[in-house]
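#onboarding

Welcome to the new folks! Below is a worked example of what a typical request in this channel looks like: someone posts a single protein sequence, and someone else replies with the predicted structure as tokens. Don't worry about understanding the tokens yet, we'll cover that in week two.

Example request:
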Amino acid sequence: MHDAVLSATRRTVLGAGLVLATAPAARAQAFPNRPIRLIVPFPPGGGVDVVGRILADPLGTLLGQPVVVENRSGAGGGIGVEAMAKSTPDGHTLSMTAPGAITAGPAVRSMPYDPLALSHVSMVTRSPLLLVCRKGIAARNLVEFVALVKREPDAIRFASGGVGTGTHLAGELLNLRLGTRMVHVPYRGTGPALTDLVAGNVDIFFSDASAWPMVQQGELRLLAVSPATRWAASPDTPTVGSVVPDFDVSNWYGVAAPPGTPEAIQARLAADIANILARPEVVEMLSRVGFDAAPMPPAEFAAFVRRELETWRSVVQAANIRAD
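Example response:
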């Protein structure tokens, strides 16, 4: 009797272990079995939202389930990413990601999730940050702007998409390199910041490429681009680094899933995203709004995130930036 009980117990334990071990595989085999939620952690109208919506429909077609975009903004993208991070890791809840929620923001303040523990499925786009200014500012080009901000070091107001976003840290890096004290004015995303910049309520903004149509329409003035190389869409525009030493920043957007998402699901999503980003019509749509398609598989993307987080932490420490 005793041996029979022990044998039954062993079978129960082994069976439970088998269920636990095969749970990720079962989730992967069943994926997807319902609509996918794609959280955009910024308001409608900004670059992350534009890219997410370009991606959603063709991704849904490839997956055989609709991909529903849900805007959940706040905390520099942290609120939306937190909602994704706390979801079941079965691939049915994803989030667009950006430096503010993944590398720049966590360099400034603690987040309710570990950015390095997330399942970084794929990079989607890369682009420069555009140093744009309101039309009425007394600077027609980058050289004149640098002279202006040095002459009036605490009079210039620079907008950002939120505390700890890439657009914030780019402005702080400019302060650090120039030895100036431009005043930071944070917004809840790129869209509201651009609206106030066009209205003349702030002076400059390191915007993502969603500012490009406003530049083309004459609503804003483009002073420079943030990477070390010039931008193909506006090849005559100088880089910030051509005037400001040691300045090289680029913007990126990606897709992430909750920690522990099975590798098979990540691989499926990454392959489908790469498929979409190779399509000429998608490349053209992204290019039209200033973004370059930049698919990157999970392992490579995770390594990229780790390196960039280390870089921004060093900038935050050097500039003595605080979350408040």
